[in-house]
Amino acid sequence: SRLVGLKKLLLNVSRAVIRDVLVTFSPTEGPSMLNTTEKGKAGKIFLPKEIFRSLSGRIVHVVVTVLNIQQLGMFKEVNQAGQVLDNTVVGITVGNTSISGLRDPVQLTFTHSQLPHGVTPQCVFWDPSKGQAGGWHSSGCVTQPGDKKTVCSCDHLTFFTLLLNPALDGSTAQALMAVATAGCGVAMAFSIFTIAFCIFIRCRFRFEETVRINLGLHVNLVGSLFLLNLAFMLNSGLSGRIQPWTCKVLGGLTHYCLLCCFTWTALEGCQLYLLFVKVLGVYIHHYLAKLCLLGWGLPVLVVGVAGVIGSYGEYSIHTTDRQVIARLCWITSKHFLLHYITNCGYFSLIFLFNMALFGVVTQKSCSLQGTGVVQGGRKPWKVALVAAGLFCLLGATWALAFFTHDTSSAPVLYLFTVLNSLQGIFIFIWLVILYYPKTKETTGSLSHIIRYDKNTTVSQ
């Protein structure tokens, strides 16, 4: 058998014997009755009398199962961030009855060596209904961490384990929250400056229709960034002190603003495709109005469906010692699969598309610079600025989120927080340098490419 340390402990519990039950277990030796000479190297299970009171008058079997899931290949959660302690799962059943809602909880003591820095123990049980293939859940379990042991107190019986999750230390977490809050304030200020600047130059100068559409796109993208930063500041400031229904609304609003930001980033990429790849005249009636309907309307459908299934609520961020450093109104842990689909999956498609366009535009711009098609002889620093601004405009800084899956990667978290906080500043400086003052050589925000060989290429 591939079961390591699997033993069945059969205890006859009758009407005359209603008492607490103490059992020890270890990954290598399985379960056994508590030994008074035990030196503490094995884990312990405490079953309260409450379990057996309702079963008095019957003979039932108490079965304790110790499994090595590494050899079995069982209990594997999709996108699991934590590691199961010693690959050990402990299952407890009493008779054939499902037991839950205990007032006097079951206690499991997991023994272990000193845990490494940046790891948080969490008592969890296997929930077959979580996601598509099941997953670990902590509802009904309380974790009491210690240096050499962790006690799990749970109000039901099932398969339990101790999950070691990567976590932030307190000082790093507080510093990141301070940087993020300050960055959001600065980003909101520069978003306002950028919107005002775009409106000013659109009214002050006569641009061709393509450039006016591009300015409209920039205003909507920066507007979505402003709303996202505002939602985050409201979230971090109000969550934990508001009613549950208000938290659900705020969580949905934050999710909506994030999806709007991603969608407008995708629309910026689509506009580049029309301008640089499909360069022949493309006219769409009320083009900007239709983009606005898509950019602000599509996220409404996603958030509406998520709200109907109750996906929003309070989400807590913990430190290594299980202290709560932030309570956010966001997608709850129970529905976190929605986060991977609507946020990670959605942005992945946008990122791949936009980066492919970035490569095409950069290559085409460099080739035209070399052949002398571009008028005005742009300086290398300005070309570099154009590339950096385009890189930021297409949302490349959000890609750092893929490297923050392990929350102990503090340097990447700092970089992600700072760059996304400064995204509004980058876009503002980029637009000011490229759009103002208006000259004969500057009619767009990337480069001006004149008519050449009967083909017209317009740049954004």
UniProtKB/TrEMBL annotation:
GO terms for cellular component: plasma membrane. InterPro entries: GAIN_B (IPR057244), GAIN_dom_sf (IPR046338), GPCR_2-like_7TM (IPR017981), GPCR_2_secretin-like (IPR000832), GPR1/GPR3/GPR5 (IPR003910), GPS (IPR000203). Residues 180-435 form the G-protein coupled receptors family 2 profile domain. Residues 21-170 form the GAIN-B domain. It holds the Pfam family GPS. The keyword Glycoprotein applies. It is found in: Cell membrane. GO terms for biological process: adenylate cyclase-activating G protein-coupled receptor signaling pathway; cell surface receptor signaling pathway. Keywords: Cell membrane, Disulfide bond, G-protein coupled receptor, Glycoprotein, Membrane, Receptor, Signal, Transducer, Transmembrane, Transmembrane helix. The chain crosses the membrane at residues 175-201, 213-233, 253-276, 288-312, 340-362, 383-401, 413-436. GO terms for molecular function: G protein-coupled receptor activity. This is AGRG3 protein. It comes from Piprites chloris (Wing-barred manakin).
